Amino acid sequence: MGARVVVVDDDETLRALVQRSLENEGFTVTLLSSGSEVAERLSLSIPDVLVLNAVLPGMSGIEVCRQVRTNGSTHRLPIILLVAGDNGDERLVALSAGADDCVTKPFNSAELVIRVKNLLRRVNPNLLEHMVKVGDIVLDREAHRVHRQKKEVRLGPTEFKLLEFLMRTPGRVFSRSELRLSLWGDDATVDERAVDVHINRLRKGIGLGKADNVIRTVRGAGYALGDF
Fold first, then answer.
1. Which residues are CB-neighbours of 185 under 8 A, at least 6 positions away?
2. Residues 181, 184, 190: CA angle, nearest 5 degrees
3. Which one has a higher pLDDT value, 190 or 74?
4. Which CATH class is domain 4-127?
5. Could you tell me the pTM of the whole model?
6. Distance between CA atoms of 47 and 18, rounded to whole angstroms?
7. How many other β-carbons are positioned within 10 Å of the β-carbon of residue 43?
8. Which tens digits make up the pLDDT trace of 90-147?
C-alpha cells in the first residue's frame, strides 16, 4: 500500500494524468472533482497528502485549505495547492491559507510527484522507506515480510496491509470505518465487522503465541498500534 494522496481538480484530463503519474510511483490515489467533496472524504479517512486546485467549482481550494487548517483532526495534513502560473497573488494567498507547497499550472506531472515525495520526506519519511520499524516490529514493503523480535511473522495479505497502515502512525486510534476504507476502499459490500476479524488474525500473527497489547482496542473509538 503506497502513501495515500487525494487529488481535487475539476479538469478530468488533468486528474487522470496526475493519477497515472502518482500510481506509477506506488501511491494510492483518490480523485475528487470539487471542493465541496473534500470534507466528507476527510471524515471517512485522512490521506497522507492533499493536492487541490486553488480554483474549484463551488468551494475554492483556498477555502478548503483554510477549513482543513482549522479542523483539529486535519490541521497537520500536508497540502499542495495548484495555482495559476500567471497569478503571483494567488500563490501568496495559497501559502497564507496554510498550503505547505504550491505548484504552478501548467506543470509537468513528474514535478508534482517530486513535490509530493519531498513533502512526505519532511513530514513522514517512513511512508517512502521500504523498511519500516516500530518498536520490535519490522515490516519490509518490498519483500512483503514482517519480523518481530527477529522472528519472521506469517501474515495474510490483508493482515499485512492492515499492519502497514497502523505502523504509519503508531499510537493513533483509527475507527473501524477508517480501517475498512484503507483495506477495501469504497466497497460497500464489506461490513465494518470484517475489520474486527482481521484485527484478531493480525493479533494472533504478531503475538508470537502470547497475548499482549501491541494492538490496543479503544472502546467506542477503534484500534491503535501500541505507542512504543
1. none
2. 95
3. 74
4. alpha beta
5. 0.71
6. 16
7. 13
8. 889 999 999 999 999 888 899 999 999 999 999 888 788 788 888 889 999 888 899 9
Cell numbers at 219, concatenated: 472502546
Query: Shortest CA distance to 85 belongs to which of 59, 64, 65, 111?
Result: 111
pLDDT tens-digit series, residues 48-65: 999 999 999 889 999 999
Cβ distance 154 to 205 under 8 Å? yes
> What phi, psi does 146 have (nearest 5°)?
-130, 135
The residues pairing with 132 across neighbouring beta strands, listed in sequence order, are 139
Are 94 and 55 in contact, with CB atoms under 8 Å apart? no
| pLDDT for residue 209 is more than 90 | no
Check the CA dihedral 177-178-179-185 and report its sign.
positive
Span(s) in the chain for CATH 1.10.10.10:
130-225
Question: Which residues 6+ apart lie within 8 Å of 76 measured at CB?
Answer: 123
pLDDT tops 60 at residue 1 = no
The topology (CATH level 3) of 130-225 is Arc Repressor Mutant, subunit A (1.10.10)
Q: Give the 3-state secondary structure of residue 168.
A: helix
